[in-house]
Fold:
Amino acid sequence: MSKTIIAVQNLHKKYGNFEAVKGISFNVLEGEIFGLLGPNGAGKSTTLEIIETLREKTSGTITVDGFDLDKDPNEIKKCIGVQLQTSGYYPGLSLTELIGLFAGLYNKNVDAAELLAKVNLQDKAKAKYKELSGGQKQRFSIATTLINEPKIIFLDEPTTGLDPQARRNLWELILDIRKKGTTVIITTHYMDEAEILCDRVAIIDSGKIIALESPDKLIDNLVATGFERPKEVKKANLEDVFIHLTGHTLREEA
Ligand code: ADP
Ligand code: MG
Structure:
């Protein structure tokens, strides 16, 4: 049995009178890929940012790697990697310079070339952030989460807006990061992606967790209620056609 690395208990978050998170509890296990799923406005980003120490909670308790969020937020910051929104990067700096900047913030010595190679951007070391395609930007921002060699990384909709090739490429990267023992928390609106990547998912709706299980178990539970898809399922879908026709090779035109 894996041990719990994140424990969230009875978390509430109010923005003024509006309660965005309504008393949610969940544990994330060490080494798993844990998905937070839910419609826009469900409270996913709020929850992540509270755990990341970037947003104040209203009430509830959170521990990350044994550290209490209220008592040791700085210890938590040290062991997590957070993907910045794209606007967080100086657009005019090269990738190598940006990595240097982040490494300085973390007080770490980082081999920029090696880090860029991990996310398949070795050829872009001198390129500026603003010159990257959408998929490259996402890969770069994932690279920056790895600078402090975190135990846990947080990815908030890392594949939104990417083409199918870039999305698959990012899945491989995320699986690769997990294979090295890093715990991953991810949000996504793509259910195929959650099914492929996540060991367990929490489905959040209007600030409450309405299901928490492995994707496989959730599907089995639904089928057990007698649910059937309205239409006979074909052996392929349009995305399979797209990938079959256009191949897996990454297209990096922005
Ligand atoms: P999700 O990431 O699931 O789409 P969010 O956590 O971003 O949802 O938002 C949850 C709810 O809280 C939404 O209704 C959103 O409008 C609201 N909200 C988010 N941030 C703020 C804020 N800074 N001030 C007021 N309301 C906010
Ligand atoms: Mg969000």
Notes: The mean pLDDT is 93. The longest strand covers residues 4-15. Strands lie at 4-15, 18-29, 33-37, 59-64, 67-68, 80-82, 152-156, 183-187, 200-205, 208-213.
